[in-house]
Design goal:
22% strand; 7-stranded mixed sheet; 39% helix; 473 residues; alpha+beta; 2 domains; Nucleotidyltransferase, domain 5; 18 helices
């Protein structure tokens, strides 16, 4: 008899509630509800509509009750957070990570705690959007919400609190905040105190697989609540000599390691150590990802040309290969805007050929992304000392055949894509393990591999790609 768990999966663009059925051999996915994840600007501040998400999550769970689910698990994007008062009330809608309130906040932190010390205490990549700098903006503005705050929760922790009444932070998401210390296994209290951030608001941290309560009689289990943590749990491999790319709005490129890697080489490369299953870490780097292509598409739609993603790939096929390249991680690409113009400006500033047509710009984005993946994988392989023979790409970006082939070409390594739904499957896998249905993550990954959703890409034209890599990096 099939057994079922419910996976709530929220991304930066949309959310859904999925029923994941397991008959003892195979997983089967059933979408119960899908809904947008809107961002609203109020007086210049970007907010998530968290109550809209909550209403749709409740509706999806209600629909899923027909399957008598064993449990519910929530995963979401990382970094963003909320503050609760003493009574457990939400003090404000969560602010989106791309909001400008973090402008200048990295420098404010470094004035109190040297940059190298911040990395030593947290092992996290320096990005303006990190939770640390978001909270620092509240300190600097003397925000009333911080004064009245009793509890800090990341987004999935808030949803788990609303589901169960449990106030705590799950490990994989807590590690992304740049306020967690891998050496002590708890909050980086020394860093927080020196930064003027009240440490009393930070709750206990629980491991993925922990049962934290019930919702309408259904057990709620914290999976890897950071969606990348769940996506990596869903990588269909039994080997360790692999790298992963969780490909979507962001591209998360890295390897699994037993312990956080916090040394001078990791600091200089600006890589990050995010928590994974079984107290492991994901040594990785955030790359801007398909966000740039999404912004190009939005710009052209505003100008009157509404392309589908398949249209964009077809345009790219027609453009000249490896002529136009740029650094996808330049800060100008972080916020929404006219990214085609940003690309042209970057190329002009660096005295490189400037793409003109839509097809040239799209191909430029995809090829530059693939070359960035090569750069990150080379760095991480050197820092970790871990051999990388194959690259697993999971997530929505697996549907972009052109980018997948470019990744194989740029890295010179075999690329295996799939599953598209790695995040949901990883979420469900942790729940099935916690419920005693599956033995461990190795067994879960074997089940995922047997679904047969994988496609293999082999490197082509490697000399031409090597030349392009040397031009860009």
């Amino acid at each position: 008899m099939a057994q079922t768990v419910l996976a709530v999966d929220l991304g930066a663009e949309s959310g859904r509630v999925m029923a994941v059925h397991f008959d003892g051999t195979r997983f089967k996915l059933e979408e119960l509800i899908r809904f947008p994840n809107p961002v609203t600007e109020v007086h210049g501040t970007l907010y998530w509509d968290i109550l809209h998400l909550w209403r749709n999550i409740q509706a999806g769970i209600e629909k899923g009750k027909q399957h008598a689910p064993l449990s519910i698990g929530v995963d979401t994007w990382a970094i963003d957070f909320v503050l609760l008062d003493e009574a457990g009330n939400l003090l404000s809608n969560p602010v989106m990570y791309r909001d400008s309130r973090t402008d200048g906040m990295m420098e404010k932190v470094f004035a109190k705690v040297p940059k190298r010390e911040v990395f030593q205490q947290t092992g996290i990549q320096f990005m303006q959007i990190n939770t640390l700098y978001q909270v620092m903006s509240l300190v600097e503005s003397q925000a009333p919400v911080l004064k009245h705050a009793a509890t800090f929760l990341t987004i999935p922790d808030l949803l788990n609190y609303w589901l169960t009444g449990f106030k705590g932070c799950e490990f994989t998401n807590a590690t992304t905040t740049q306020m967690f210390n891998p050496s002590t296994g708890t909050w980086a209290t020394d860093l927080l105190e020196k930064s003027g951030i009240p440490t009393k608001i930070f709750p206990e941290i629980v491991q993925p697989g922990t049962k934290i309560g019930e919702y309408d009689g259904i057990p709620v289990i914290a999976p890897a609540t950071h969606d990348t943590g769940s996506a990596v749990a869903g990588v269909p491999t039994q080997l360790m000599n692999y790298a992963y790319i969780s490909s979507g709005t962001w591209s998360l490129v890295g390897v699994e390691v037993d312990d956080a890697v916090i040394n001078d080489a990791a600091f200089e490369a600006n890589v990050t150590n995010e928590g994974g299953l079984n107290n492991t870490y994901r040594l990785l780097k955030n790359v801007m990802g398909l966000w740039i292509l999404q912004q190009c598409r939005a710009t052209w739609a505003d100008e009157g040309t509404d392309y589908s993603y398949s249209d964009l790939v077809n345009l790219a096929w027609e453009a000249e290969s490896l002529k136009y390249l740029f650094d996808v991680d330049d800060d100008r690409f972080l916020v929404a805007g006219n990214h085609p113009q940003h690309i042209q400006d970057w190329c002009a500033e660096h005295e490189l050929p400037v793409p003109q047509t839509h097809g040239e710009i799209v191909r430029c984005v995809l090829e530059s992304l693939a070359l960035k993946y090569r750069s990150v994988i080379d760095n991480i392989q050197s820092i970790s000392g871990q051999d990388i023979d194959v690259i697993h790409i999971v997530g929505g970006g697996t549907q972009n055949d052109l980018l997948n082939q470019f990744t194989a070409n740029a890295t010179g390594k075999q690329v295996i894509t799939g599953p598209i739904e790695a995040t949901v499957l990883g979420n469900a896998a942790v729940q099935f393990i916690a419920n005693g249905v599956l033995k461990d993550i190795q067994q879960a990954r074997a089940v995922i591999a047997a679904m047969g959703d994988n496609k293999i890409y082999r490197a082509e034209n490697t000399e031409k790609w090597q030349s392009a890599y040397e031009r860009l990096f």
